[in-house]
Amino acid sequence: MTSTTLDTGTAPVLILLHGAGGNQAMWNPVRRHLDPRWRVVALDLPGHGSKSDSHFTLEGAVETVAAEVRRLAPARVALVGDSLGGYTSMASALALPTDRVAGLAIGGCTQNIAGKTLRQLRTRKVMMRMMAALLGPKRLIAKSSAALVKKGLLGPDDVNALVAGGLRLAAWGEAVDSLGNRDFLADVPKIAAPILFINGDKDAGPVAGEAEFLAAARHADVARFPCEHGVSLWLPAEFAGAVNRFVERLALKEAA
């Protein structure tokens, strides 16, 4: 990606928000492909990584983002999230002053977690608890980490960084509980900033809800990629490319 006219001083600071159960190291593969002109900050959400001594709530996650935005003042920010990070981005955009949020680039979150989807996720949460009781937390983390490598989602070095950053798989269930039955679709029209929705073609729930979220948003576009849930993990270069193009448009708009 090249540009000869963009004043990067007008570019928003990117705040990267990870998925459930992980930590900020989940973004390492994406960060390698983000334009070096952008200033980038990756956060650990409550109950995750460096904050594993707490529990996840969406309200706590929003306050984590808000505190970082206050620290970055007066810079404007672009919230970049995948899955849980995407939902957190939407909730944060509503809680932050509108003049501080330049845009949102968010993946895998164009559906409300309710009904059949919520029941399936709660069943998975129970199964994960049973596995943790059977194997113990350390063995379960090792097993889960090996699966990420086997599926081709992360290389060994990135998995090691993720584990070193602190994996707390119980946070995944807390995220399900916190997001369940919240009406994010009703919140989307209240977000003033432009939104880029990023989905994998094989991610059935978000793909099914994509058109509704797109229609509800004031200013929104969609980027689709050939993968399952978690585009930032399956296709980090492509995810980063979509973010780069989105942020450059935001920066050019700021400069105009």
UniProtKB/TrEMBL annotation:
Keywords from the named record: Hydrolase
UniProt xrefs under SUPFAM superfamilies: alpha/beta-Hydrolases
Highest taxon above the source species: Bacteria
UniProt xrefs under Gene3D superfamilies: alpha/beta hydrolase (3.40.50.1820)
Alphabetized Pfam families for the sequence: Abhydrolase_6
Domain AB hydrolase-1: 14-240
Single GO molecular function: hydrolase activity
Name assigned to this protein: Alpha/beta hydrolase
Organism: Scleromatobacter humisilvae
